[in-house]
User: Fold this.
Amino acid sequence: MSAIVVNWNGAKDLEICLASLRAQSYSSLEIMVVDNASTDDSEEVACRWKTRWIGLDCNRGLAAALNEGAMSAQGEFLLFLNNDVRVHREFVAALVAEIVRDTEAFSVDALQYDWEGTKQVHLASYLARNPRGENFYQLVPGLYICQELRDVAGPVLASCAAAMLVRASMFRELQGFDSRLPIGYEDVELCWRAWMRGWKSVFTPRAECWHHVGASGRSVKGAEIRFRGTVAGRLLIAAKLLPWKFLLTTWMVSLAGLMRDIILLLWRQAGIRAGALRAFTSQLPGILRERREIFAQHASSDEHLERMPRRGQSTMVALLGKKDFPTDAVEDYCRLLGDIIREDGYVFGLVRVLWEERGWLRALGDLWRQSAEWEGAWTLVQYTALMWSRRGFPMLFLLVLVALRIRGVRAAVVFHDAQPFEGMRIVDRLRRACQRWVMRCTYRLSRASILTIPIEQVAWLPREPRKAAFIPVCPTLPVVGGAVRSPRNGRDAKTIAVLGVTDGGDIRKEVSDITLAARHAAEHLEHVRLVTVGRGTARAEPEFREALQGSKVEYSALGVLPAEQVSRVLADSDVALFVRGRISTQRSSAIASIAHGIPLVAYADPQLPAPLAQAGVVGVPYLQGQELADATVRVLTDPGLWSELHERSRRTHEEYFSWRAVASRFHEVLRRA
Assistant:
């Protein structure tokens, strides 16, 4: 990690700052001082503390100096500090722990006290139109940045550049601070752009520092630089990032301020304000070009304004274990659920327990420290046996729940694998017994248990499972189809889609059943396409091509694609097949076909579970390939049946499988718990 301290004629404060950095418990720390052409003995102080010295030829302002330091820094994380800040011994460790735990975090903000430690001068920030209390300041006319003390870590509007940690990769992708802001608002502008990319800023009260606020700006020249930065910052942020009405009001208020300065004969202040307005006017065409580029890739400025962190939001955390590769459906599930929950006014974060990388002891220690900030918050703990173990014996997962319970965290466990593994070997039976025991214990330790299959199908639950609720999974793909459409006529090419095959192991039966259905369809239709996409399909391509040799079927193996492209493949298909076991409400690949309104032919139990029974699913007995082929032909050749299945899937998706429906069900379950 690299610490970048910006200095200007602050040798006395710099000495204290560097001493506190050298005393950190976090050992892997590169320290750099970027100096804005000081005339005091700051360089001697930096040399005495054995730090890298980067001397600038003139005072370029805070933003430009921070960017200069970031260009030379070697660390994965960058710590930006003012020279008039001293930090607690655990300051860096607390910041790093938070940014490592929260995979969506771009920056981490710290709790700041005044130099004497008697008053809190910087807290968690949020946006408000009508501020309450005393702890706020104006961003632009009509918008205010307010601050409040929080006991737990959570998203904030922006981190303070006087003491903030950022991910170096994200910082460079954002191209750093806007150097047109010499001092003031440079941190808000940077973090706002990060939020627009979905990269949040987080405040943690565990990172404490003491700020000699404005020590470098108490000279006349320093005060002038700060005033010019405030005027320029408001204008630039309004023009670059906010709805147009804020630019208009900010411009008018700035002109009114200039007229007031002239009337009151404040000539020096009027000159500074006029210079800032003149510079902004010359820069405006370039700023507007940047604005167009920003909002060409993101939602409108009004939408982003409404998404910024505000007061009164509840906190919810999704807790995951080991990451799955090459795609992680559970992580996608959490991210998509989080998007909807945020719209309902919640702060939603994604955190991993890195037991595989760090070992269980360290990972549990990390969780213990971080969960101290989650007291009273809902944590959605995601469970699959292999997410919390290497070979399906997830006993240590219970320690995660014990730690959360001791910390006072409200844990709701989402069982993505509610059924234990199958198999007849001795090790399979032991694994199955272990998983049942773990899931029973998990049910007892949790405040709520959310199952992705109907409750009546789960044998390990108690006789009266009051804490259990059934919430089916949603498609982890964006829905680009689903609109009402008609079946293609008999002369048009018909497409059979298969979303994923078993990745590894013996897939001969899957290949045989799928290709039998495609061949059978080609005997009844002029043009048939078979498209396989998703996990395992690239590896299985040779088997499919061999099985289709000599047939009229046109075959495409697309492999793993971005989610949007997979959605387009499904939306352009006429029927989907599911042969990886029996269909259930926890099979997100099958649900994706329903979400796109595509009739689905699937292996199933004799009685389809609700709500699959209401969807456009044609169930056939497990491993009966000929019946699968016959059902596929019926769907492709009967326009009336196709339309009925299509409409049923559309209605079922909207009622049960849409993210809005699932989020509403989550709110209901958690409210009841």
Remarks:
- The radius of gyration is 30 Å.
